[in-house]
Each structure stands twice: as C-alpha cells, then as structure tokens.
Write a structure and sequence with these properties.
The protein is α+β, with helices and mostly antiparallel strands. The protein is built from five helices and five strands; from the N terminus they run E-E-H-E-E-E-H-H-H-H. A hairpin with a 2-residue loop joins strand 1 (3-10) and strand 2 (13-20). It starts with a strand and ends with a helix. This is Xanthine dehydrogenase.
Length: 158
C-alpha cells in the first residue's frame, strides 16, 4: 500500500494525515474523520449524496481521490451549522419541508450553498439543472427546488 501525507482544511480545521493513494475523499471524511453527514450512495458519482465543497465548488467525494484534496479547503454538511444555528440554506430546507428520509439532504444542501455563494439570480429551470446531479427517492424534488429558490432569494435580500 502506497501512502502520501496530505494537508487540508476541513470545516475550518487544519488536518494532516497519511492516506492510501487509492482512498477516496469520501472514505477519508467518513471513516477517518468521522464526518458521517457525507453519505455513500452510488459510489460512482451519480447520486450526489456525497457532495462536499472543495474550494467552494461542489464535488462528488466518492470519485475524488483524497490525495487530490492536498492543500484544499473542504466543507461538509457538518461545517454548515454555526454555534447551534442552521445556515440559511439548511433553514430553507426545513421551512420548505425539503427533508424526508434525509439521506440525500446533505448533498443537496452543499450544492445549494455553492449556488448561494455564487450570488447569481437563477430561474427555477436553472436551479433544477444545477441540482440535476442529485437523486432523491422521497420528495419528488418540488420542495427541494422551493427550498433552493427560498435560499437564493433570501441571499439577494441581504
């Protein structure tokens, strides 16, 4: 087994660890750092359940090698709640009933957070396209899209 020492910032904390060069970022986050909000769904980059932000951009962590994260900033769902207070995106998901079983929710929240941070005004169709890399088996997507719209609109207001 070949390993490499990597240094990354995860949810604001500096982390240094040796990783197997074949290890995915998902495996490191879940099994080594115990950030279980990052879900393993399909393991091939199709469902979006493992989405994290890498330098502010959403990526499927199941197909992103941990060694590629060296020197980067990673944000997971665990980093979104500050001092016990939900982020605006998380709050919008709660208010719009966009959470049922919750398995897909962290990925949707992280991708929506990236949309909010981009600061663009998006139509409903554009939001659907931006979130199309995610699968949800429970909600039928309508409440998720409404939550994303709410979060985007609230970010425009201040």
């Amino acid at each position: 087994m070949k390993t490499k020492k990597i240094s990354l910032k995860v949810n604001g904390s500096e982390i240094v660890l040796d990783v197997d060069i074949r290890e995915s970022l998902l495996e490191v986050l879940r099994h080594r750092l115990h950030l279980t909000g990052v879900k393993k769904g399909c393991a091939v980059g199709e469902c979006g359940a493992c989405t994290v932000l890498i330098n502010g951009v959403p990526f499927d962590s199941c197909i992103y090698l941990a060694v590629w994260a060296d020197g980067k900033e990673i944000r997971t769902i665990e980093g979104e709640c500050k001092e016990g207070k939900l982020s605006k995106v998380q709050q919008a998901f709660v208010e719009e009933g966009a959470v049922q079983c919750g398995f897909c929710t962290p990925g949707f929240v992280m991708s929506t957070t990236a949309l909010v941070q981009r600061g663009e005004k998006l139509t409903r169709e554009e939001i659907k396209k931006e979130l199309s890399g995610h699968m949800c088996r429970c909600t039928g997507y309508q409440n998720i899209v409404k939550a994303a719209e709410k979060a985007l609109n609230e970010s425009e207001e201040g």
